[in-house]
């Protein structure tokens, strides 16, 4: 092998390792300790602290204030009606909510979608936890909470004192919920 081919092979190997590392990082669950773990920027992003001051319209026109969930464990799920993995995980999230609501847990779904599509979907699919209409701004909100790619579904878990404990890009699995249920 001549020097040139060795150089190309070395560059390709480094690029492959970097790509694999980036893919691994993107698809891993990431824990963060405390509020400082996620910070917004000055361009309409939301820090964990200001998340609690947000309010969303509900599909039936009421207001859903995030501050009303302080003091509880909170699972926030970003979803959309056009997202198959989102729709697949919603019954699991609803079951988790039903099983844990008496254990100081709350689940909130933030729909990154058109209000009419969400209302239509909810007419035939019952969810027992509250849903807020985040619209397209929900993508930016999820990014400010650590969803760097803006992918759906995306979930975050907040502790009772308001700190961000965990986040997950991709469909929630029963193992995730079992882990999160252990958080205090």
* Largest beta-sheet details: 6 strands, mixed
What is the strand arrangement across the widest sheet? 1-8-7-4-5-6
Radius of gyration: 19 Å
The average pLDDT score comes to 83
Q: How many distinct beta strands?
A: 8
**Strand pairing plus helix content: what structural class?**
alpha/beta
Summarize the helix and strand pattern as letters. HEHEEEHEHEHEEH
Count the helices. How many? Answer: 6
Residue ranges: pLDDT <50 for 5 or more in a row? 20-46
Helical residue percent band: 25-40%
The backbone outline, from C-alpha atoms, is globular
For the record, give the distance between the C-alpha atoms at the N and C termini, rounded to a whole number. 58 Å
User: Roughly what fraction of the amino acids lie in strands?
Assistant: 15-25%
- The multimeric state of the shown protein is single chain
Topology of this protein?
Blueprint: H1 3-27, E1 30-31, H2 48-51, E2 55-57, E3 63-65, E4 73-79, H3 84-100, E5 105-111, H4 115-124, E6 131-133, H5 137-144, E7 154-158, E8 164-169, H6 174-181
Parallel strand pairs: 4-5, 5-6
Antiparallel strand pairs: 1-8, 2-3, 4-7, 7-8
């Amino acid at each position: 092998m001549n020097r040139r081919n060795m150089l190309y092979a070395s560059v390709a190997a480094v690029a492959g390792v970097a790509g694999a590392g980036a893919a691994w990082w993107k698809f891993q669950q990431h824990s963060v300790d405390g509020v400082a773990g996620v910070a917004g920027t000055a361009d309409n992003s939301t820090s964990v602290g200001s998340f609690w001051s947000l309010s969303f319209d509900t599909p039936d026109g009421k207001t859903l204030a995030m501050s009303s969930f302080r003091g509880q464990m909170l699972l926030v799920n970003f979803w959309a009606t056009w997202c198959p993995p989102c729709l697949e995980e919603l019954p699991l999230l609803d079951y988790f909510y039903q099983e844990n609501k008496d254990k100081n847990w709350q689940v909130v779904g933030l729909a990154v979608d058109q209000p009419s599509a969400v209302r239509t979907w909810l007419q035939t699919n019952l969810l027992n936890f509250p849903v807020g209409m985040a619209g397209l701004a929900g993508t930016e909100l999820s990014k400010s909470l650590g969803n760097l790619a803006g992918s759906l579904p995306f979930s975050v878990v907040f502790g009772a004192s308001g700190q961000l404990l965990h986040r997950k890009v991709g469909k929630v699995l029963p193992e995730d919920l079992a882990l999160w249920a252990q958080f205090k």
